[in-house]
Amino acid sequence: KNVRISETGGDVVEFAIKLPGQSDLPEDCVLIPVDAKFPIEDYQRLLEAQELGDVAAADESVRQLETGIKKAARDIFQKYIAPPKTTDFGIMFLPSEGLYAEVIRRTALVGVLQREYHIVVTGPTTFAALLNSLQMGFRTLAIQKRSGEVWKVLGEVKTAFGRFGDTLDNVRKKLEQAANSVDDAQKKTKTLSNKLKAVEASTDTRPTDDGITDDMPSHRASEHE
After folding, report:
1. pLDDT tens across 104-118, in order?
2. Which pTM was predicted?
3. Residue 54: how many CB atoms within 10 A of its CB?
4. Do residues 80 and 181 share a domain?
């Protein structure tokens, strides 16, 4: 608000939209000058002539309105458009929707404003839409500027994920080796268990000196009697 375009002095524009420049430094920002114009007298005369149905007066009021709008556009162009500090165009804000509609429907006038004075005409509704468009555009630009950083991060994530996959593969192999070792130990344990059982069985049925096994103590005792 109330921005001085030239650092050495000069006129002050009512509003300026700050846009990011080639770098993120504040001094590199670019300004869009915005100046409000409201030729109320010319517009009121036009409305009165239209209400009265006075065609001649309405035509004269239109000519006066167009002259006033062109003068306002030239004023903005000469005072506030100063590249590279500003954009190569400025915005004329008409605070009445009716006045904006009256101006914008005159295509020849709008063409002169854009071609000769680099002026974009906006009203209350279209000005808000313009701001939204600028915001979205420069958000996209910011993303594009940082796309290199984004791809760098994605590359690092991809590398880290690849290493993580290798680590998981190594863990899987070690788990398989451990499982095989457990299976082998179980087989060996079972073999040893079977051998021990066989030894125990052979010990219980071993023969004595007289050819009678130790598992028949009661029978030997009866024969002795």
Report:
1. 999 999 999 999 999
2. 0.59
3. 13
4. no
Indicate if 189 and 96 belong to the same structural domain: no
For the chain, how many residues are written? 225
Same domain (yes/no): 130, 159: no
pLDDT at residue 19 in the model: 77
3-class SS shares of the chain: helix, strand, coil, % to 5: 65, 10, 20
The b/e string for 2-13 (b: 16+ C-beta within 10 A; e otherwise) is: ebebeeeeeeeb
Instruction: Compute the C-alpha angle 103/106/110, nearest 5°.
Output: 75
The residue range of the domain holding 155 is 150-206
Number of domains forming the structure of the chain = 2
Residue 33 burial (10 A CB sphere; 0-12, 13-18, 19+): buried
Residue 81: which of 118, 56, 114 has the closest Cα?
A: 118
**In this structure, is residue 214 part of a structural domain?**
no
